[in-house]
Write a structure and sequence with these properties.
Helix content is 26%, strand content 27%. It is α+β, with helices and mostly antiparallel strands and 89 residues long. A four-stranded mixed beta sheet has the order 1-2-4-3, covered by helices on one side. The longest helix has 12 residues.
Amino acid sequence: MTAGAEIDARGLLCPLPVLRLRKALLSLSPGARAVLIATDPAAIIDVPHFCAEAGHRLLDMQDRPDGARAYTVQRGPDPSPDIQTDMTP
């Protein structure tokens, strides 16, 4: 496993868990993994959607004994320089 991060987002509601995951992934190298721990019921929909849209891989989802769910995400590749990611004029 490539070095990564663990994000504790227990008690936070949408969109904060995904925003925290996004920020953590931006600081990691492509291929690194992050684990998001969240209690927000919407995260089961939001995290897979975020991964699909941003080019990351959702590797695993596991329920935890404390009622939270752990999402293991592998950071995708950096965007191609040919792809414009900033839409400001």
